Amino acid sequence: MPRAIDGSKRKEHRKKILKLAKGFRGRRGTNFKAAKDAVVKALVHGYVSRRDRKGDMRSLWITRINAAVRTEGLSYSRFIQGLTKAGVIINRKALSNMAIEDPDAFKAVVTTAKKALEA
Question: What is the topology classification, in CATH, of domain 8-118?
C-alpha cells in the first residue's frame, strides 16, 4: 500500500498547527517544524499558568485582607485565628471584596474576630 504523503489529513494537521502558531515571531509562525514545537510549548505554559493564577489570586486576596486588618490594629494571622475561633467561615476572596466594597461589614467581621481572640 502506498504512503499518503500529500493527503488531506496531513494538510489539515499542518494547517491546524500553523493556525495555532499565528502571531509567533520568525520561523515559529510559518515553518511547520518550528511551529509544532512552539505550539506545544505555548499550550503547556498556558495550562500551567491557569493553575498558577489561582495561587496568585489567593496571595492578592491575603495581601488586601492584611492591609485592611492592619488599620484595625490586628495582623492577618491573628485575624484568621480569631475567625476560626469564632466559627466564622468566609473565604478569602469574599473577605477581600468585603474589605474593598463594604468597609463597615468588614469592621464587624474584624470585631467578631477580636472578641473571639479575647475570650
Answer: c-terminal domain of poly(a) binding protein (1.10.1900)
